Structure formats: C-alpha cells, structure tokens
Amino acid sequence: MQHDSAHILAIRSLGWLVSNETLIDGFLAHTGASQEDLRAQAGDPDFLCGVLDYLMLNDQWVLDCAADLAVAPEDLAGARTVLGRGDQRHWT
Prior knowledge:
This is DUF3572 domain-containing protein. By secondary structure, the protein is mainly alpha-helical. The protein has one domain (3-87). It has six helices and no strands. The mean pLDDT is 89.
C-alpha cells in the first residue's frame, strides 16, 4: 500500500469512527483527545495511527469499518503499518 492510499484510508476510517457516537466517545475517552483535536489533527499520520490502533482493539469494529468502507480488513492494518513507518500491529 502506498503512503497516499494509507493516508486516505485512515482519514476515511476516522470519518467512520466519528459517525458512530458510541465509538467516537470511547475513542475520545481512551485517548484524551478532544473534538477540536479531531479536526486539527485529522491529517497527522501519528494521530491517524492512533485512530487505526483504536479500531484494532476490537475485531468487530475492524470488520464493520472495513465492510462500510468496502475494503478488506487487512487493508486497515496495512494502512497502520505504512503510516506507522513499519510499526506493525495485529488486529487479530
């Protein structure tokens, strides 16, 4: 996966997360981020890695997000690896 594709997928994942009130509230509580941080840091690869890390805490979230975004679940992990400069996390 190319960096641009990973970045776009991570931003789309953030949009998916924001659209789910329960999950976004959990993300904000878990990370200490604020609503303002979501807007200000949406383009930051490190912040987007945090978004993908949070999604990968729960297999069902990964599957639901991937299905809604019409991508393979592995693509979310691949985006995380690219944006994290090779740091690999496993969602399973």
